[in-house]
# Entry
Amino acid sequence: MKKHYLLTPGPTPIPPEISLKEALPILHHRTSEFAAIFSDVAEGLKYVFQTRNDVLILASSGTGAMESSVVNLLNPGDEALVASCGNFGERWVKILEAYGIKPQVIAAEWGDVVNPAVIEAALKANPKIKAVYTTFTETSTGVANDIAAIGAIVARTPAVLVVDAISGLVSQEFLTDAWHVDVAVCGSQKGFMLAPGLAFVSASEKAWKLVEQARLPRFYWDWRKMKKSLATKETPFTPPVTLIVALQEAIKMIKADGIENIWKQSSLLARAARAGMKAIGLELFGQRPCEVVTSAKVPEGMEGGKIVKMLREEFGVSIAGGQGALKGKIIRFAHMGYIGKADILVGFACLEMVLTKLGYKLEKGKAVAAAEDELLKG
Amino acid sequence: MKKHYLLTPGPTPIPPEISLKEALPILHHRTSEFAAIFSDVAEGLKYVFQTRNDVLILASSGTGAMESSVVNLLNPGDEALVASCGNFGERWVKILEAYGIKPQVIAAEWGDVVNPAVIEAALKANPKIKAVYTTFTETSTGVANDIAAIGAIVARTPAVLVVDAISGLVSQEFLTDAWHVDVAVCGSQKGFMLAPGLAFVSASEKAWKLVEQARLPRFYWDWRKMKKSLATKETPFTPPVTLIVALQEAIKMIKADGIENIWKQSSLLARAARAGMKAIGLELFGQRPCEVVTSAKVPEGMEGGKIVKMLREEFGVSIAGGQGALKGKIIRFAHMGYIGKADILVGFACLEMVLTKLGYKLEKGKAVAAAEDELLKG
# Structure
């Protein structure tokens, strides 16, 4: 009978309108009914990505789509740059290394953001760099990189810009074409309000030129097969039919709200979350906070894992703790997708109780009040 | 208002008990609740696979799991053998070639099965062959290879046997360990009665030895990460949570029926399907028919695609046509997973009407009666 409140940065809650679509009798994927849904979804993805290029649909976790952005663009021995500031930035390095590419790595401290000027200097110093890999919203720390600035820099070079926008795209303003993002990667379980299992990749003309020359091995991840499937409406392999049917509903809901309004909503919730944290003396973590998750430092002497566990076990509230070196040191509240104003208030009310039980001194109601203040400003 | 009847070899119909599980509020994957489900499912998969080895869980189509069985076992320059008899056998060749492995190919005619003696001779002639890739039920033609015989042969050599059992495992008797199958690959959308989006791989000790030495590039497909996740109950990447929750229900249902009874049921339906086809003069296609799908030749002068289309559009009955060279030449009725006795009868009744409309001479009710006769023998 436990009621759950999901304030985690993926999976995020799924609206019943979407999850019930997943439960409908399954369609066969080689039918005109499915082809119509597939076309509609492919068009809708362009709107969500804010791109005129095709958006490819993959049956995988987001990491699979990241891997596809390595094997479809590079040749053995190519030079690549990774601009990283957290766990997900480091994943680019691991994937590249798995394929024998030793990238040049610009690693900002966890909590900082990538400095676009450093990328500019690196590209100037090494004109052979073929691709720059970075992260939009680095949810492991809660920051957002300035992709518009990075895009403007990379666009002036022969390199392509590949952005892991898995957690941020949909929920926080992300303009694939206007920002000169050659490859944007996204997953289904964040702003798309779907279950995990689908991933998406957009690729620019500049990127497609590399795809034709790329010689890293690929079969399942081959973008050429996926692009062809957009034209023929026949996927190369059995696609996750129920998730794609649910995706159609998700895109319909996103369009009905208007993507700009979704961006505004996340931004409002982010301001409320930051205000709530500060009101009870929790120090925010990270420079240039993103709008999909808010990170705060765990009070001195307290173990962050305990807060996370107690919130879940006693109140059914799931938030995220820290990853890697930040394990136990930060807590993270997500506010994207189907997480609403009231959910943030639930999160803070329960956080107040948990911190009190753990011996932290605070004035009950203060985090909630501060969040309310921000929400009322609209 | 159109009612659909799915008699296709994947996706197959999903029981409401399972699809409603998919629609439940999503769990976070880093929780004790999900860890318990993940463990339970991992144990249950061993029963379904009839193996004592771990069964790995992948977020992909079945083809992704096939690719993982190439990159986790081989080194550049290794020798491999593919024993193929249809579309899915040929897929092994394409995947291997994508990774620069030029396999020796034993290709039986489409409709025939692989001759185990030919595999034996090939292994004798070339003791450097490291892996033999083949297919259990080749649904593109409707035949089943004799994996028990092939397994006994390969077990006496240093090579490992890798079997694409995507469409057959669960529904037709498949004894991973007893038949000496080193690697068995399966997908979620066939006998498991789930939506597509999950795939499974079991690996023997002999296979794991190769995994440790394998040097083909891999990140997302790396079995070592997946094996570790079985121990820690923490998946390396966000798993398809809703599908895994639904899988738990599917395995519960499979266990409740008893897997031997599921095998018997498919076998009975296969006999009924074969009898129905023959009763109206349709010639069965393929040697050694499998028990998950029945193929019959399209009557002379008729276009198979028309039968498939008319069945779907006029009666909501989805069956499969031919693939590749068999396009338009065969029709295929699936009988696995949540396809029951009555569904087969619906299929034949509607097929009788469609063939009649297309000008084929038959006595209405004859296919249904012949299928009934077989079903009554139980």
